[in-house]
Amino acid sequence: MEECRVLSIQSHVVRGYVGNKSATFPLQVLGFEVDSINSVQFSNHTGYAHWKGQVLTAEELNVLYEGIKLNNVNHYDYVLTGYSRDVSFLEKVVDIVQELKKANPSLVYVCDPVMGDHGAMYVPEDLLPVYRDKVVPTADILTPNQFEAELLTGRKISTEKDAIEVMDLLHAMGPETVVLTSTDLPSKSGDQFLVALGSQRIVRADGTNGRQRIRMEMPKVDAVFVGTGDLFAALLLAWTHHHPNDLKAACEKTLSAMHHVIKRTMTYAHEMAGPTKRPSPAQLELRMVQSKADIENPTVVLEATVL
What we know:
Blueprint: E1 5-13, H1 20-29, E2 33-42, E3 53-55, H2 58-70, E4 78-81, H3 87-103, E5 108-111, E6 116-117, E7 120-121, H4 127-138, E8 141-142, H5 146-153, H6 160-173, E9 177-183, E10 193-203, E11 209-219, H7 228-242, H8 247-273, H9 292-296, E12 304-306
Parallel strand pairs: 1-2, 1-4, 4-5, 5-8, 8-9
Antiparallel strand pairs: 2-3, 6-7, 9-10, 10-11, 11-12
Helix pairs in contact: 1-7, 2-3, 3-4, 5-6, 7-8
């Protein structure tokens, strides 16, 4: 594959896997050059009892970007962004993406619009209009969870039909590809499964526009993982690159690789914690390096249904 370069603007932790630490290794293993801007530098993720560190300001982000630009090495094939909790920082990200798209009109912007989950926002509420009015229209691939998709469209999702309508509303806002990474929709396989849905705008052989829509079911895991959303967005970037017009194949490889990583992490965490104790945040850090082979060439264990 010809050299493909990703600018990833996400958080960084010294210990563990979240943000850029979750995204960079898998992308490199899959053959991408990754340039990282660390939106925060923390000792570890905030699920631990203690954490320390620094937050990058919008101005500091701009300084780093200016340095890249002055050397004329600001040519990117992809931009990847995740968690942000500052309005001016997020607006600066949009400015940078728009400028990079002018330089390379075929650039693909993959955005995980991280705002909250299960009905609660964990970023300031003034980020919502920025995501809705500026970020989403600039994005090409969007990976919200159900709650984030509902926030962005102002529509509730209670049925699969609702979910499809919400994905269509998101397409209308800009993105070619939308994946609802997790929903509360009932699984056909029983309570132990989570449902994800995806939709991709396609041009049919006869030149008309259509959609490829898929549904996937993933086994639920009784543990709190951090960094899985960041891993998902990075893997989806990679596999949509390898399967540009086949959302089914891209999602099957993405979710199967994640399944392997999570399974290995769970096994390790329970071994470390012992049979009677719940694993600690440190024991539940993703087993990323140990999963290199699964990331590189995932055995497809989760199949998608075309809707």
